[in-house]
Amino acid sequence: MDAQSEAHRPHRFLEIATVSLLAVTAVLTAWCGFEASKWGGEMSIAFSQASSARVQAASAQATAQAARQYDLTLFTEWVLAEADGRDDLVEFVEQRFTDEFAVAFDAWVADGRSERGPFVMDEYVPPGAREAEELSAGADARFADALRNNQRGDDYSLLTVLFALVLFFAALSQNQHALWRRTVFFSLSGVIAVTGVVLLATFPIKI
Fold this sequence. Notes:
Layout: H1 3-83, H2 87-94, H3 99-110, H4 129-174, H5 179-202
Helix pairs in contact: 1-2, 1-4, 1-5, 4-5
């Protein structure tokens, strides 16, 4: 092998390595763009589900408030009738208690009426109250999922920028005639590429 071939060997090696790095980085960049898009879609779905759950929770809460108001109106009539000593009206009102309020009322009476009223008893759960709590908790969970998915999409987008730097320095190295400058730019792009791959390995994948 002549001296000229020996001199060109490092250049040929760097050319092959640079082309390989460019090819791999292009694939990784496309993958990051795909993942960013997928997580963005997951974010939109989670936000939509959270919003729907909020609406349902508000509807259930309105049902619970209406039931509470109805029970409060009857209980007020019961208090007035008992204060007036009208036992017939007291019995009439008690017969019209809702099932949910009747349970709390009986517990309140059994407790010696020590609490301020049946409404503060643990047994009193108006219809829609539990549903509202569950739906509200579900909405909070989906909203938190949406924020996490948004961050994941942002992370992949940042990786896309990082890999774009790899492409930039790798392409820049090909335009250098001096071997040392070519080696520097290629090494820089390689370090950035390795950093990007390490970060990519820690990110969740959505297919």
